[in-house]
Amino acid sequence: MKKNSLLFLLFIAFVPVFAQQSDLSVEKIMQDPSWMGTFPENIKWGYDSQNIYFNYNPEGNPGDSLYKINVQNKSAIRKVSLEERREMIPGAGDFNKKRTKKLIIKNESLAIADLKSGEITQLIDLSEEIEGPQFMADENLVTFTSGNNAYLFDLKNARIDQLTKIEKGKKKEEKTEDTSEKDDWVKEENLELLRIVNERKIKKEETEAHRKAVAEKEDFTFYLEDRTISNLQVAPNAKYATFNLITRKSSKSTDVPNYVDESGYTVNLPARSKVGEDEITVELAIYNFEKDTVFMLNTESLPGLEDLPDYTEDYPDRDWEKMEREVIPSRAYFSDNGEKAVVNIHSKDNKDRWIVSIDLENGELKNLDRQRDEAWIAGPGVGYTFYGGGTFGWLPDNKHIYFQSEETGYSHLYLLNVDTGNKKALTNGEFEVFNPELSNDKKHWFLTTSEVGPGERHFYKMPVMGGKMEKLTQMEGNNEVHLSPDGKYMAIRHSYSNQPWELYLKKTRANAEAEKLTEGQTEEFASYQWREPEMIEFEAEDGAMVPARLYAPTEATKNDAAVVFVHGAGYLQNVHKWWSSYFREYMFHNLLTDLGYTVIDIDYRGSAGYGRDWRTAIYRHMGGKDLSDQVDGVRYLIENHGINPEKVGIYGGSYGGFITLMGMFNEPETFKAGAALRSVTDWAHYNHGYTSNILNEPSKDPIAYRKSSPIYFAEGLEGDLLIAHGMLDVNVHFQDVVRLAQRLIELGKDDWEMAVYPVEDHGFVEPSSWTDEYKRILKLFNESLLE
């Protein structure tokens, strides 16, 4: 008996450490997400402030449906019938000043809705699509666009006037007679000989010239030529219209082959062009109705328009001629009275943003605020899209505009008096502001901030001209607040690190209690004790404190191995106290921890949530600080959590896959195994908008691309590498990993393999694909780190 016991103990001692057990499995966590439950999305209020509408799926249908809760009967969650949905007032449209009526598009017709009675009255039905309905300052007048033109509708007299005449193509040139030299001579001789014939000819020409002059004055037409029109809108005083003109030059686009098309043939999917193929020009046009003419916004006087970016100093042999940089103006933003307008202008290299006022009589501009960033202009509420975007608008006094800026290093809310030029910061501190909105009475701001800490989001109320912010939410985590139209209630979509999103109701007071309205988790999902990751910071090599989430196993299950997870997108935050958009990865990390792994998830340099310096630390060198932060995270685990330096793996998707490759190629002594999913391997092959901001353009700044692209460092591979990619990926093309595979073959590398997914785009959809991919990742770590 003692001999048998000894043999049993010896067997236990030599069982591999990865034989730890878990209630989770890859198959379980990667199945259709409906196994977790149903969680509210797309929260909206009814106009009577009595009903909260949201997408939900308690019945487990193939797709979500619309449900509602009445604030007077909060326990009843009711599905909205198709008939009720048809009668609902659409969300898009324009309110009158008192917010009692709303212009909408209903059944492709222009209509007006009475928000108290719910009655909808059809106003106009045209053969062409109607868009952009808008009340004028005189609310008896409304405007809309159809085709490429703007129209004015008089509600009292039911009369429509066309305000603009904009046509596609070019003005038709008058035909001229094709005559020979002999014919011309005969005609001239005839006119010299016959006085009356000559006099009649002269009179005819004068009459025709007068007719043309009158016609052109009465019937001015603006021709688009080879341009398209966007953002056509009428000023509230109905004196002007503005629109953007977009010219697209031909650029070489790419194709993504679909090998599993239903036809049985290989079909090419049209995809984007590559960085550097930016062939777009945008102008802002002003249509003056009184003068019956169109003129363009003149940007020549913008301060610093000829300033060269600092990176040009790295290319002293090039002749960097000072020249006006190309800019892209946003749409015009009109004051409520229509007498003033401001425009957001970005330089195409995205180093500058100008906020300007424009003279609507002649198109001249006046600079109000210039923001310069040698990396790139962006940040919460700032936006770095070419068409403006972000937080921007007017106060009702027709004097002040509001906007967000990273002037202090963090994105804050500002007011600027367009008459005096005085600028005032309404918020300040080492935190960021998100989605500020004016209250319906225009007396207060409601805004979300990270003032409590970068890992939380709370909702505040603040006087319109600035002052003390009143915190209205208390629940730890993320509070997405939707204010009722009457301002009395807050519908809060809330989540915590280990608790998915649920819906709460709270009166709009700081000391009111939040009442939970939904309970969406299934019994199966709730039965597992999902971990609350520990929020930590560790010191990087340059002294910066780097935030991370830590999943630590118990001492009894710990296997001294670690896995580093790298989130995607680059500019994204995953170290926070709310339910992650990476919920599958979160569940996988729970599985890994059950099996004895220590998992760390880092908000490396370039991540969102930590201000301008963190955001731009990757400028001109992706795979620099963002990679060294992963290495420093491993050092922290070795020094503080007893991790074996020989047992560290790394994985991530998209940008996370890119960092994984850079880690495997450039830090082989740190990472023994890596799984690179849907990875960028060469930034010169990615899209323009994202890449050019961070690395400039490849033809202008090749140094940045060579430093930042994994394909240049593939010879450094020493550990075990898994490459996984969807073959229908129209974002990061499958071509990226094909080129890398050929590079690895040519270098004679052995310890790598590639898994391809024929039916998947950038974001996987099929549970079978998710399951296959993550079984391979788990197998990689178990075999490379534990055996």
From TrEMBL:
<dbReference type="InterPro" id="IPR001375">
    <property type="entry name" value="Peptidase_S9_cat"/>
</dbReference>
<dbReference type="InterPro" id="IPR050278">
    <property type="entry name" value="Serine_Prot_S9B/DPPIV"/>
</dbReference>
<dbReference type="Pfam" id="PF00326">
    <property type="entry name" value="Peptidase_S9"/>
</dbReference>
<keyword id="KW-0031">Aminopeptidase</keyword>
<dbReference type="GO" id="GO:0008236">
    <property type="term" value="F:serine-type peptidase activity"/>
</dbReference>
<keyword id="KW-0378">Hydrolase</keyword>
<keyword id="KW-0732">Signal</keyword>
<protein>
    <submittedName>
        <fullName>Dipeptidyl aminopeptidase/acylaminoacyl peptidase</fullName>
    </submittedName>
</protein>
<dbReference type="Pfam" id="PF00930">
    <property type="entry name" value="DPPIV_N"/>
</dbReference>
<keyword id="KW-0645">Protease</keyword>
<feature type="domain" description="Dipeptidylpeptidase IV N-terminal">
    <location>
        <begin position="252"/>
        <end position="501"/>
    </location>
</feature>
<dbReference type="GO" id="GO:0004177">
    <property type="term" value="F:aminopeptidase activity"/>
</dbReference>
<dbReference type="InterPro" id="IPR002469">
    <property type="entry name" value="Peptidase_S9B_N"/>
</dbReference>
<feature type="signal peptide">
    <location>
        <begin position="1"/>
        <end position="19"/>
    </location>
</feature>
<dbReference type="GO" id="GO:0006508">
    <property type="term" value="P:proteolysis"/>
</dbReference>
<dbReference type="InterPro" id="IPR029058">
    <property type="entry name" value="AB_hydrolase_fold"/>
</dbReference>
<dbReference type="GO" id="GO:0008239">
    <property type="term" value="F:dipeptidyl-peptidase activity"/>
</dbReference>
<feature type="domain" description="Peptidase S9 prolyl oligopeptidase catalytic">
    <location>
        <begin position="590"/>
        <end position="785"/>
    </location>
</feature>
